[in-house]
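INFO batch 0412 | record 1 of 1 | parsing
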Amino acid sequence: MTHPLDLEQLAQHIKQWGQSLGFQQVGICDTDLSIEQPRLQAWLDEQYHGEMAWMARHGLLRARPAELLPGTLRVISVRMNYLPANAAFAKTLNNPQLGYVSRYALGRDYHKLLRQRLKKLAEQIQNYCGELNFRPFVDSAPIMERPLAAKAGIGWVGKHSLLLNREAGSWFFLGELLVDLPLPVDQPQTDTAEPQCGRCVACITICPTGAIVAPYIVDARRCISYLTIELEGSIPEALRPLIGNRIYGCDDCQLICPWNRFSTLTEEADFSPRAALHAPQLLDLFSWSEAEFLTITNGSAIRRIGYWRWLRNIAVALGNAPYQPDIVTALQQRIGQQALLDEHIHWALAQQMMRREQRAIFVQSPQQARLIRAVEKGLARDA
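INFO prediction complete | emitting tokens
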């Protein structure tokens, strides 16, 4: 660097560089999350993290980002939209014979894409400054990304615990870049211009499993995203019927949120839905061999749960579907392949037999009916 370092100017450059790299917003904050530590400890004390032992293992380190990179002075927080065109929310959720995949996972795994862009941003800063100590994060370390993003002015934490933005709703990924520069910080969004979440409890009411146990508090042990992605063992029987046809994650709390009327579609081609995952037939998915699963999910976030948990989730969805002889046959043909899968297959078969005997038809839960009505009215994007 041959010129004096103008930190105000550099902060503006960082935001311009970030946008040129595909981030819709870039904010800067300090590393102080002391206000979050009591909340985090109380959440852990309630065991709301379930089997995610790393959360308890790292403890309050998640609220101390400066300890992850000695010398860190600022966190550069970024967001990137991921909602694809033709998201087919209502089409998929309203048909119990189809499998619903959380919309963030329909395309390429976001971890690598965002991390690569953050590294490029760091390199541009480094070229400008001459020296820079940095570390990028995209769900890759114990860091409280949502409170940091809120401090950086990216949005505010909603009652469903996700980050909300007035101009973009919540359909976006977050990433962080820790740096050792004393950059000027941005101001958090406040309540003065808009009521933010106000008295709205739509996300709490719509949650199929009642996982949002209080405003801003999620019991992961009941969350469908946790049950279908993070949980390695058996899905509790009482929660299986509530999962419906959601085979990887859940978007209900986002779908019902009025702020998502302002969401913007992604411009990233990598986030476009893969055909095999976009409103797929459950029976087709259940017929995949392990080789097919690995091929189709190559470069996808879905691959991390592995083949057998993937089939476990689909077995539950098949158990929740209306009775079909083809479903019974498909389930029976999988018996004996793996113990965890067998447990869920036997449950699904019992559900199918019950429906056959009762001549039951698919009936939406009140929550599901409200969700579909909201989508069809345009409160949530279904472009």
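INFO post-check: The two ends are 48 Å apart (CA to CA).
INFO record closed
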